[in-house]
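Write out the bound-state structure for calcium ion.
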Amino acid sequence: MRAFSLPILDEGGKPTIQPEGKAHFSTKSNFSGKGNHAVVWMCGKQPEICRSVMMKMKCLLSCGWVESGLLKTAGPPLLDEADPCYDDSGRPLRCIPDFVNAAFGRQVASTSTCNNRCDSRHLTDLLNPSNVTCWSSDPVDTGTVVNLTLSLGKKYELTYVSLQFCGPKPDSMAVYKSMNYGETWLPFQFYSTQCRKVFGKTPNVLLTRSNEQESLCADARSGIEPPSGGRVAFSTLEGRPSSYDFDNSPVLQDWVTATDIRVVLVRLKPVSGSSNETEVAQYSVSDLAIGGRCKCNGHASKCVADKSGSLSCECKHNTAGKDCEKCKPFHFDRPWRRATAHNVHECVDFLIHHSDDNPIQDYC
Ligand SMILES: [Ca+2]
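---
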């Protein structure tokens, strides 16, 4: 039990100090909050302490003001004391969800059904790297294209897309992304020993600040390749000049954003014109990994699923939306902006912003 005083309202609507643990109140009273925080609402002058409380609370915006704000009781806090979106004094901090393998355990749609003998769950089930499970395509000739499509369910900011192969690496493959749940697709990266011939792309184009959203083509094979078990990993920011100033690069923030990833396995062997071109073989992949963070624009430290399983950021800083991409209602006093390390760009309640010289009594 912590020793905090408990302000509740007397009959005249004024806060009174009660012994610890004795306060009882209902939603009919001028309280909002639960757990170990609450706010008293009434007209009057705003004490300094309440400003931070207001920022941390889901406030009920009735006609009122925080007169005597903080209520603490025993039990788990409503607001995690270590909430990375705020410091100890309630000041907002830029916060981001954990780095994850966003593909793990997700379903992958394949254009090769393998007559239902192949289990696409084996593409995203990596638990024990020394005991891998493999997905294999239908037996195809070496020029048959197979798509593997994975939906992330919301926007993520991706650091890498990688494929671990059970069989030989394909000679040519491509990685595409969608930013609108599969409506349209944009190329992320191409791999081929014959970039011009297969994809019409010049290999290894130099990236500058003027073409940072350019998809590149590279040879995924380097030196002596193992006959099977190789890995192809696409790093979304590698070689892109503004990656060192990612906070201030909307171009790259956009570049790494995706809701869906599609891997297109194009050819197993080089286009040679030889009889080998029609050799029957299989694509075989043990793991598709997509490394990144749920995109919350610096305004949430985690993403949560609702009852239907739909993922959304748990938005803080008075932001709202699936990706905390807008200010929540009644907090439009300045335009929404993505948080940076130096400025959180918290959305501001009209009342808070105008409180310094204009007490709330004017609005009551
Ligand atoms: Ca596997």
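---
The mean pLDDT is 77.
The pocket of calcium ion is lined by residues 122, 125-126, 132-133, 286-287 (CB under 6 Å).
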